Amino acid sequence: RIGAVHSVVFGGFAANELAVRIDDARPKVILTASCGIEIDRVIPYTPLVHGALRQCRHRVDQVLVLQRETARAELRQYGFLDWRATVDGSDPVPPTPLNANHPLYIMYTSGTTGKPKGIVRDHGGHAVALLYALRSIYGMEAGEIWWGCSDVGWVVGHSFIVYAPLLGGCTTVMFEGKPVKTPDAGAYWRLVEEYGINGLFAAPTAFRAMRKEDPEGRLFQRYRIDTLKHLFVAGEKLDTPTYQWLSDLTGRPVYDHWWQTETGWPVTAPCAGLGEREVRNGSTNRAVPGYLVEVLGEDGQSLPPNQEGDIVLRLPLPPGCAQTLWNDHPRYLESYLRTYPGYYHTGDGGYLDEDGFVHIMGRTDDVINVAGHRLSTGIMEEHIATHSAVAESAVVGRHDELRGEVPLGLVVLKDGVAQSPQQVEQELIALIRDQVGAVACFRRALIVPRLPKTRSGKTLRAALRKMVNGKDFPLPPTIDDPAILDEISDVLIREGEVARPGQVL
Question: Residue 465 is part of which domain span?
Fold first, then answer.
C-alpha cells in the first residue's frame, strides 16, 4: 500500500542468517512478532533480532514488535516499538501508485556462495502470472476457499498464501502448525472440513509425516472432505508410495508440479482449471503456457526424449519470473543466463519423455532441498570450517523418507586433535543449528580420513552424493587417489548410515 519493498525472513533461521539478509537488503524498519509457536515450543523472536542487529553492519531505524500473549517481549532497546500502539496512533494514507516493473519484494534463496541471492519480484508481471496460475492451474474461482500450506517466508507462502488467492477473490487459510502433533496427523483433514477448503497445496514432506503417523488413515476417517476438489504438491520430488497413499486415501486427484523461487509460479503442472487431468507417475507434468522447457547436454545442444541433462527454459521468460537479483545484476546473469546463451538455467537435472512430460531428477549444484526448504551445503561447509578441530569438510544431501533430503557432513580432522569424534560431531551439530538454524536438520557429521579430490584439488561431491545414497557411479577420471572412496565407504558402513554405499562401476 505504501510502495515499500518488503523481504520476509523465515523464523527458523539463526541470528547470523538474519544479519546477512539485513546487510544485503538494508531495510529501514524490521517487523517481527514477539514469538512463534513450534508444536509445543515457544520461540522468542526478539532475541534473534537483537542478535542480528549486533552482528550486522547496517543500522535499522526501527523495530516494530507485534506482542503475542504467549511470550511478550521486553521493548527496552532503543528503536523497538509496540506494533499495536504505533498503528493506533497513526493516520491512514492512500495507496501509492507504482510502475508495473517497480520491485514488490525481495525473496532470499540459498546460493552456492556465502551471500544469499535476493530474488526481486515485480508488481505487474507478478500479479498477472499469479492470477493466471490460480485460475488455470489450480482451478480456483472467486469466493472459493484455498489453503496453501507453507511458511510465509518462502516463495509458496508469498505466491499462494498471500498474493494469488487475494488477487483472485478467494479466502486464504493461514495455519500456524504442523501436519502432525498439532494435535495429531489428522490436522489437515480437520481444517478441510472445518473451513470447507476447496483447494489444497502442500509439500510431499507434509504427507510423508502424516503417513508415518497414520499409515492406515484412521484419523482421516474422522473427517469429511467433500468440499476438496484436488490436491497439489510441490517443493521436492513426490515419491510413488506417498502419491499412491494420498490418492487412495482421499479419492481426490493428486497433482505434482514444479517451479522455483526464481519463477514465482509453476513451470510444469496439469492445468486443472483448463480441464487438463492427465498425470504421469514420476513426472511433474508438462510445461504450462508461457514456458518452453528443454533439456540440454554439456555441449548446449538439445537432447532427445528420455536422455538426462540440464533442465532449461528458453528465453524470454513469462511474466512473474525474476529478472534480476537485489543490487547484483551481474550475479543474476552469471547464475542463470550465461551457462546456456538464450536459456534460463534452472540448476535442476532431468529429462523429457516422448510426450513432453518433465521428469526432475535433482539439483545439479550444491543446494539441497530439506522438506521443501532450499539450503546451501556450501554455507554449512563454511561454518564447519570455523571449528578449531576441522581441517576440511564436504556436506552432501542424503535421501530421507520424511524430508526428501537431509545434510550429511563428512569431516576431516586436523592432526593431533584431542577431542573424540563424538564430541566434535555434537559441537558441529550445535554450530550449524546456531549459525544456520534448526531448519537445516543437520544431525550427522562423520569423521573420515580424507576427502576424494581431483588432481586440481576440487572435492568430488557428485561421487560422494551417489555413495551416501547407495547409487553406483563410474570412477571419476580426474580422481587423485581412488583408495579414498573405499575409506569413506567403510566409515558409512561402520556408522550405520547406509547398508550398502554406492560403489564404483
Answer: 367-494
Residue type for position 414: K
Rounded mean pLDDT, 31-47: 92
Question: Rounded to an integer, what is the distance from CA 59 to the centroid of its chain?
Answer: 29
CA dist 358 and 350 (Å) reads: 7
Is 148 within a domain?
yes
Query: How many domains in the chain?
Result: 3
The three grid cell numbers given for residue 412, joined into one nine-digit string: 576431516
CA 395 – CA 16 distance, rounded (Å): 19
Whole-angstrom Cα distance, residue 485 to residue 461?
12
100 neighbors 122 (Cβ within 8 angstroms) = yes
Q: Return phi, psi of residue 334, to 5°.
A: -70, -40
* Residue partners of 29: CB distance under 8 A and separation at least 6: 60, 61, 62, 63, 64
| Torsion angle of the four alpha carbons 166, 167, 169, 171, in this order, in degrees rounded to the nearest 10 | -20
Quick one: average pLDDT of 235-247? 86
Q: Which three cell numbers stand for residue 240?
A: 510413488
- The confidence band for 12, taking pLDDT boundaries of 50, 70 and 90, is confident
Would you place residue 202 in the very low, low, confident or very high pLDDT band (cuts 50, 70, 90)?
very high
Q: How far apart are CA 462 and CA 172, in angstroms?
A: 41
| Residue bearing cell 522447457 | 293
- DSSP alpha helix (H) spans, 26-123: 46-55, 83-88
Average pLDDT over every residue of 281-306: 93
Dihedral class, residue 68 (left if φ above 0, else alpha if ψ from -120 to 50, else beta): beta
Is residue 489 one of the residues assigned to a domain? yes
Residue given cell 563424538 in the structure block: 422
Query: Percentage of the chain with pLDDT > 70?
Result: 98
pLDDT > 80? residue 112 = no
What is the CA 504 to chain-centroid distance, rounded? 31
Is 373 inside a domain boundary? yes
Indicate if 385 and 483 belong to the same structural domain. Answer: yes
Domain boundary among 225, 256, 287: 256
Could you read off the pLDDT of 69-83 as tens digits, one per residue?
999 999 987 789 999
Shared-domain flag, residues 78 and 162: no
Q: Are residues 407 and 471 in the same domain?
A: yes
Same domain, 65 and 142: no
Q: What is the mean pLDDT of residues 472-477?
A: 80
Q: Both 374 and 490 in a single domain?
A: yes
Q: How far apart are the first and last CA of the chain?
A: 59
Question: The domain that contains 451 carries what CATH number?
Answer: 3.30.300.30
C-alpha cell at 316: 524470454
Q: In CATH, what number is assigned to the domain containing residue 233?
A: 3.40.50.980
484 belongs to a structural domain: yes
Rounded CA separation 113/371 (Å): 21
Q: Are residues 146 and 239 in the same domain?
A: yes
Give CA angle at 128 (363, 168), nearest 5°.
Answer: 105
